[in-house]
Amino acid sequence: MLPKYQTEIPGHFKNLIEDLNKSLNGEKSKAFHRLRVKGSENLEKTGFPTMRNEDYKYTSFARVFNKEYSIPRQDQITQEDKDNCSAMYKNEIGGDRLCFINGMYQSELSNITQAGLSMHVLDQMNEDEELHNESINVWDSLLNESNNSFLQLNAGLSKNGIVVEIQKSKEIEKPLQLLFYYTSSEQALIANPQLLFLARENSRVTILEQHAHSGKNEQPTVFANIAERVHVEKYASFNHFKIQETGLEDFIIHNMIASQNANSHFYSLTADLGGRIVRNNLEVHLKESNTNTDMFGLFIGREDQHIDNQTFLDHAIPHCESKEWYKGVLTGKSRGVFNGKVLVRQDAQKTNAFQQNNTMITGPHARMDSKPQLEIYADDVKCSHGATIGHLEEDILFYLMSRGLNKDDAGRLVKIAFLAEVFESVDNDPIKKLLTEKVQFELDKI
Fold it and tell me: How do residues 392-407 score in pLDDT, each as one tens digit?
């Protein structure tokens, strides 16, 4: 029997899982395939969420579920696709790169050279290796514990898993660039990339993750369902920037689950600039004391875009701090959702948690649903949360126009200033410059 407010998996999703299993041949004996089996079995038990599910009450996935997809194949990738993926690499930022086309890892386009940084394809590793067994156990535990249907779907349809390890006491000087390129097809595609990041004790790394579409104006062609697991060991620092600018008819669901050990730092910034239906599921679990967690987000919605940010911060241990700030600009018939929950458990004394969501509405038909939440069971804490939703103020426009700006330039300046507080959290100048350029380009369209 399915859980309350869940619906059965459409038959064409079951067919996808069966088709993938038939194509595996000798891989069925591997440990990674057992994760596929567990994911598909769990998905049968959990089903997909409906809008009667509290965590999905503002977002309907009917358009996503009703579409019939095919699993991408390596032989469908063209040289043009490879060139376009490579072109996403930002030389001014530098560092190593991992390239994915339609969710499939491209070894010939990828490059890992920095000392202390290593990458492994999980289903190609020696199953006697300690790292292999650790990685399998991490994913296995997550599948056992999570009620996230999209994580289970990812496991059931993932072709391979990528493990990125940052070795103990190593500082990776230049960012690791993750390049996700999606290309149009005559048939809709479903992509299920899966990544595990292991930031070992006292290590430091910055990740720049980009998602982009080929840009062709065609029917919806891509459903990207990404699963990322991050483990930040004690005294380690993990900084993650994500810029998502897929096509306005694409579907993208990004699942990131992070855990932190003592005295570690986790930083996340998500910039959603594209996609028809976008859902970010971000969880951070604070496992030991003296952790610091920063979660920032910005989104720009236009036309019929639907952008949903769901966050969960689990303060289970004393003496931890967190800051969460999401800001967005909506126009046209776009809709934004922010559903952020901070849980402070009974033993988590001396917690300091801040949560804020601010949205600017610039059109009469745009809509924002915001639900910041604090659930506190400890009595010696410092916690605050809030949300604002407002329109572009005519008085400010009038003032700027009186100083010589035309109305469009004045409006653009106000919007970029509104989002600037999120930019201020970025301590990497080349990434900040790239992010600013992307946001300004998107604001020019509205």
Answer: 877 777 777 788 888 7
